[in-house]
């Protein structure tokens, strides 16, 4: 494959070659309905390309290598079984989606699907909803553009105020998503501006058209709505969730949505957050607000995803008692048990905002009677903006494996019924800007399906699908570039969990004090003696006490707090000795030098793969490595110089610091 020009038809992890093992064989398909039709189409296309055959009729008496059938067998709608006996591989599902996921399972297995006996295995997703939230605006926003925090070109759905009207492209996207198990997409930004508000009512037809292109791949459509919709769209004088007229307005609006999109998934709501309207305006609680929307959606089977990202973004930096990290728990933990059955509280994985290192949000362990979704950020707002290689699989896996009650209790991946990622895809020819950022999208889907999956095995799958029959050197090289890239990024950016230190506004590149005297609540408090935020219960903001034991105790003391989170929880002198044995300031210097060296090494490895990757893809990544290295050097020099100047402590190894 040597495509001269990149185009959106770049199939990411599903190039035709990935279907060769299936396309050379004889397949019998038994199933009805639109998604089963998609399965039939996929197999037929592969056979047309590679010479195999879709066996006609009921297949009685015919020989076939693969049977894809809808039966029952007590399986859920998305489940499937896969077995191989006597020369036939059989995938059984009860629904179309199960059949489709079974098909992609066979594609992932490749030739292995047709070799030797395979005992029957049941595959079922651990989470019911595996969703991508697109922060896409319909109209180009004067500050945020077409896609808020988007680093992959324009939106797949919208352009300059209107729907793009490109169902083929949306369908191709849905295909990629289905192949990693994603089954829901929210098509517009959580910040709902004036134009976007209308998607709920008079512009629902445009949403329905997108839903139509996502549906054949089993992907349901969700919509972000503004809490003020009854006022801004309905002309009511209030959006008070306990007002009868408001509730009726929502019920009517939701009926209109379901008339247009019968399988509509539901709403995503950002309320009382960063300027978005919400129930606080009317003196009502977030449970009141959530339940009002849940009531409107319930008769139709819809769900409301209500975001827990509620905090004061107009804080006074002089006020040391307000701690943004505490906000979500303070607001939501007291409401446990009050939410409707079809309401899901959508919680960012950390208490702040998708930093490269944060503790797991204490909210995830604090509402046992509330349905939870964990939200991660595939779009790399704070992790290199898809100009840097930063594969987030290991970070997400750590979050999902965290046990809020300690060893015997459930992991976050078991507590969360839904998993959500802010999408990193756009109209870029490679879908994600950085071609290697595709690995984040794929890994999210697979971890959402199985939160306890080994992320490195998932990466193997992505490599296998993206570069079918890749020689060992390519596989090893990709692992070398991607495996440690998150920790590398952590090393050359903000140290020891302190976070931020980014350029204000666009959030790319270093600015140590960029947010230090701002209203956003993201401070590090560095002075000549030390750095970090005291969030202990004894002397600080009390955030550490929002955790259950053992974590409350572990985080409370600098002696037991894990090194990588030390500055998140404690203000310590530069000479404080870490559990690693290094002082804080020496750790800062060492990590920043190492981080840049690791980027240099990754760039070198990538350069050595030039003969194994299509030129357009190789060149794009090689160019981005130049920028990553420049930026990493800038981070190193600014952070190291800042701390040398503040602390006056020289580098033990006498390296160059400015
Ligand atoms: C971050 C991000 C915003 C976004 C917000 C959210 O703060 O910078 O662009 O709107 O998260 O998650 O709502």
Keywords:
single chain, 658 residues, alpha/beta, Chitobiase, domain 2, TIM Barrel, 8-stranded parallel beta barrel, binds alpha-D-glucopyranuronic acid
Mean pLDDT: 96
Fill in the CATH topology of the domain at 129-453: TIM Barrel
N→C terminal distance = 47 Å
Chemical compounds bound to the protein = alpha-D-glucopyranuronic acid
| Structural class assignment | alpha/beta
Q: Architecture of the domain at 129-453, CATH level 2?
A: Alpha-Beta Barrel
CATH superfamily of the domain at 129-453: Glycosidases
Question: Brief description of this entry?
Answer:
This protein is of the alpha/beta class. It has helices spanning 20-23, 34-50, 96-109, 167-179, 194-197, 204-214, 229-232, 244-260, 286-297, 327-332, 393-401, 412-415, 438-449, 455-466, 472-482, 485-492, 551-556, 566-569, 584-607, 615-647, and strands spanning 26-30, 53-54, 66-70, 80-85, 88-93, 118-123, 129-133, 136-141, 145-147, 158-159, 162-163, 184-186, 220-224, 266-269, 303-307, 343-348, 372-377, 416-422, 530-531, 572-573. It is built from 20 helices and 20 strands.
């Amino acid at each position: 494959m040597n495509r001269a020009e990149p185009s959106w038809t770049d199939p990411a992890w599903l190039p035709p070659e990935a279907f060769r093992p299936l396309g050379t064989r004889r397949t019998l398909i038994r199933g009805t309905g639109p998604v089963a039709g998609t399965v039939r189409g996929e197999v037929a296309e592969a056979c047309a390309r590679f010479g195999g055959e879709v066996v006609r009729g009921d297949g009685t008496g015919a020989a076939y290598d693969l049977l894809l059938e809808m039966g029952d067998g007590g399986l859920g709608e998305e489940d499937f079984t896969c077995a191989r006996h006597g020369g036939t591989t059989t995938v059984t599902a009860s629904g179309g989606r199960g059949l489709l996921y079974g098909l992609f399972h066979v594609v992932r297995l490749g030739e292995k699907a047709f070799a030797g006996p395979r005992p029957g295995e049941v595959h079922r997703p651990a989470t019911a909803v595996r969703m991508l939230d697109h922060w896409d605006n319909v109209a180009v926003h004067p500050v945020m553009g077409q896609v808020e925090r988007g680093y992959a070109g324009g939106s797949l759905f919208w352009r300059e105020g209107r729907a793009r009207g490109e169902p083929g492209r949306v369908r191709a996207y849905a295909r990629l998503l289905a192949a990693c198990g994603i089954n829901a997409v929210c098509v517009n930004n959580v910040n709902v501006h004036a134009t976007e508000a209308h998607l709920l009512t008079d512009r629902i037809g445009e949403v329905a058209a997108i839903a139509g292109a996502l549906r054949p791949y089993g992907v349901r459509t969700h919509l972000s709505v503004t809490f003020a919709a009854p006022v801004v769209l309905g002309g009511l004088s209030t959006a008070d969730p306990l007002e009868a007229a408001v509730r009726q307005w929502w019920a009517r609006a939701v009926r209109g949505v379901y008339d247009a999109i019968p399988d509509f998934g539901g709403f995503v709501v950002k309320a009382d957050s960063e300027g978005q309207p919400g129930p606080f305006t009317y003196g009502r609680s977030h449970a009141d607000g959530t339940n009002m929307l849940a009531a409107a959606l319930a008769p139709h089977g819809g769900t409301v995803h209500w975001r827990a990202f509620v905090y004061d973004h107009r804080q006074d930096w002089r006020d040391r008692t307000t701690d943004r990290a505490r906000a979500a728990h303070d607001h939501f933990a007291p409401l446990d048990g009050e939410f409707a059955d079809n309401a899901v509280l959508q919680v960012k994985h950390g208490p702040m905002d998708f930093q490269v290192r944060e503790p797991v949000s204490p909210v995830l362990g604090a509402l046992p009677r509330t349905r939870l979704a964990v939200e991660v950020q595939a779009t790399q707002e704070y992790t290199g903006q898809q100009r840097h290689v930063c594969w987030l699989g290991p970070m997400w896996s750590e979050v999902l494996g965290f046990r809020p009650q300690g060893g015997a209790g459930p992991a976050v991946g078991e507590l969360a019924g839904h998993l959500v990622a802010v999408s990193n895809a756009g109209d870029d020819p490679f879908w994600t800007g950085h071609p290697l950022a595709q690995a984040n999208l794929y890994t999210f889907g697979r971890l959402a399906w199985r939160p306890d999956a080994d992320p490195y095995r998932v990466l193997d799958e992505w490599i296998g699908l993206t570069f079918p029959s890749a020689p060992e050197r390519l596989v090893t090289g990709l692992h070398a570039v991607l495996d440690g890239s998150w920790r590398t990024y952590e090393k050359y950016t903000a140290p020891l969990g302190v976070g931020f230190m980014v350029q204000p506004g666009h959030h790319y590149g270093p600015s140590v004090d960029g947010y230090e005297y701002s209203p956003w609540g993201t401070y590090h408090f560095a002075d000549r003696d030390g750095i970090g935020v005291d969030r202990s219960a004894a002397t600080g903001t009390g955030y550490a006490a929002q955790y259950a034991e053992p974590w409350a105790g572990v985080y409370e003391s600098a002696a037991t707090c894990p090194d990588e989170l030390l500055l998140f929880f404690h203000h310590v002198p530069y000479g404080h000795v870490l559990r690693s044995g290094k002082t804080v300031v020496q750790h800062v210097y060492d990590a920043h030098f190492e981080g840049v060296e690791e980027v240099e090494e990754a760039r070198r490895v990538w350069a050595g793969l030039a003969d194994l990757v299509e030129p357009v893809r190789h060149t794009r990544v090689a160019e981005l490595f130049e920028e990553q290295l420049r930026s990493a050097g800038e981070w190193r020099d600014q952070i190291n110089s800042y701390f040398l100047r503040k602390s006056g402590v020289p580098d033990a190894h006498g390296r160059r610091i400015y």
